[in-house]
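Q: What structure does this chain adopt?
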Amino acid sequence: MQGRMDGIGPGATAAAAGATPTPPSFAELTRVFARIGLLSFGGPAGQIALMHREVVEERRWMSESRFLHALNYCMLLPGPEAQQLATYIGWLLHGTRGGVVAGLLFILPGFAVILALSAAYALFQDTHWLETVFYGLKAAVLAIVIDALLRLARRTLKTALARALAAGAFLALFVFQLPFPLVVAAAGLIGFLLSRRDERKGTATLAPPEPDPVPITSAPPTLSHAAKTLAACGLLWLAPFALIAAMLGAGSGAIFTAIGAFFSKMAVVTFGGAYAVLSYVAQQAVEVHGWLKPGEMLDGLALAETTPGPLVLVLAFVGFMGAFRGATGLEPLTAGLLGATLTVWVTFVPCFLWIFLGAPHVEKLRQNVALSGALSAISAAVAGVILNLALWFALHILFARVTRLEAGPVSLPLPELASIDPGAVALTILSAVLLIGLKRGVVTTLAISAAAGIALKLGGLA
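A:
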């Protein structure tokens, strides 16, 4: 019954009932990713957890190993890994059109919300009411992350080596703050060497990849495909600049050219997620371009954290404010809308390029035994990566103040125990009971937790 209530389409019902899953139709893929786009709160940890629940657990459209194989690649790319993972999954299931639809639906709901919030902020300069709305949602997202982590661990950490790799990745990131690419490369090298050894000895240290519940056939990489992809994405990336210049002229369109050029550069260097570049963007937007006033980047971040979709949508707020205040010859709100749209366009077109260009090659790697072993090891390490994201998320939800212990190579986040938020703890427990204990589903859990959070805030209890 719960699968019927929270699922969409026959695939969800069949999976919940234990029946053999069937490949999704294009219409079903569209409906499911529209749902994911609307519910993807909580940054990458929550978004990856939600996709895992919808695609692997509930509908069984792909195996755990293929989901993690896609995630491994996306986490190495510049840009928001969750949006790129959505694009990759859509591409696997329905080719280029599936990737475009899944990737766009992951962005569009959050973009619509950030546009409305940016306009309200530009007119009224207030974000405090957002804390009340988002208070309960954050706790529900934490429960979703915990649930996904438990499910992921049960499926992927089946051997002692897999558990050791996950633990090592977690410690490397959480305690020693080592760069993510280094952690992934080390896990991959271990898996590669062990697979080569096992191939010679006829043994198996790492569990082989699971078969997919439904047939998945990806297009092989070709030079023609690469050339067409580069040409199409390149034209799409540059088209807005020519269009704006033709509409507004060189003088009035200068602010849009500056916005487009700046965020085009950001799109290819945003390794490590949005937080990795926010300080640089804030500095440039305030001191160099004058798009924001000091402190407004934090307000924009507060807006972005209350919206579904990738946190990098905060850049749309910067583009909106820059064009809203710029000398464009347009009505300010119209200019802001155009600036935000241009920012999001040049930020996300490269994300589609990385997937459509690279995914065929990444899928081909699954056929190589040694490379498949490397990717299996990386998949085990990714469980530790997600644990790191989940714990970071939990610390910042449950505690008002988090400091950092620095001792030699150790750089460990430490919460101030006195700053614990009892309301957030209670809401997280409520959400976990609803989602994990009572199996109430994501929509119900989000709704109840959000309502409870608003009640606590308005009642002065949080």
